[in-house]
TrEMBL record:
Alphabetized InterPro entries for the sequence: DSBA-like_thioredoxin_dom, Thioredoxin-like_sf
UniProt cross-references to Pfam families, sorted A to Z: DSBA
Ranges where the DSBA-like thioredoxin domain occurs: 6-201
Official protein name in the record: DsbA family oxidoreductase
UniProt cross-references to SUPFAM superfamilies, sorted A to Z: Thioredoxin-like
Length: 212
């Protein structure tokens, strides 16, 4: 028997964070019942400069990629990867790219309630598959209720205390040079950057387990 703590530093508008968890989960499933995992989700903002009401996704990312043609090519490539891995990436020219700070405040509360993975997956699905604005308080509240968070827990997520906790966490990650998502910290010792393959995750976890 081996126990792992995995902190997943990610953003809910990052497709590679979504794919990365999907691949990590495959590795975890391969390991079987002799391994136990305590997974906590940690905040990272890909686009912290985005206003609280979000921006038009296509026009914003067109500037990031340099042209609409390059964005379209990247989008189609991502959608193909999604098809191969069982994730449906749907995009339209009306999509909003949200500010995810409120979502990160909600996930911090879900960590305490042991519902953070359920919430994270619901947020990814809501944004990437259903095209919902996960920067909107009402949308976030509805998603949180569906996964089982209680009213008082949801309210706690939107307090000043919660805001300060998330800001402190994100500042701490910058100080230790965690500057990209997804990043995985295993047992507070081992750091993995990027959405590796299931086989790669499996090898890392089994190598760590040998030394426990």
């Amino acid at each position: 028997m081996a126990d792992f703590r995995i902190d997943i530093i990610s953003d809910f508008v990052c497709p590679w964070s979504y794919l990365g968890y999907n691949r990590l989960k495959q590795a975890i499933d391969q390991l079987g019942e002799d391994y136990r995992f305590d997974i906590k989700w940690q905040p990272f903002e890909l686009h912290p400069e985005i206003a609280s009401n979000g921006v038009e996704r296509e026009s914003y990312l067109e500037k990031k990629f340099g042209s609409l043609e390059k964005l379209t090519e990247a989008t189609h490539a991502l959608q193909q990867i999604g098809i191969e891995e069982g994730i449906q990436f749907n995009f339209t020219d009306k999509d909003v790219l949200p500010n995810t700070f409120l979502a990160h405040r909600l996930i911090m509360i879900a960590n305490k309630e042991d519902l953070s993975t359920q919430l994270a997956l619901a947020l990814y699905h809501a944004y990437f598959t259903e095209g919902k604005n996960i920067g909107d308080v009402d949308v976030l509240t509805d998603i949180a209720k569906v996964v089982g968070l209680k009213e008082d827990a949801i309210e706690e997520a939107f307090t000043e205390k919660s805001k300060l906790i998330v800001e402190k966490k994100m500042q701490r990650f910058k100080e230790v040079e965690i500057l990209s998502a997804p990043t995985y910290v295993i047992d507070d010792k081992f750091v993995i950057h990027g959405a590796h393959t299931p086989d790669s995750f499996f090898k890392v976890l089994t190598d760590i387990a040998k030394n426990k």
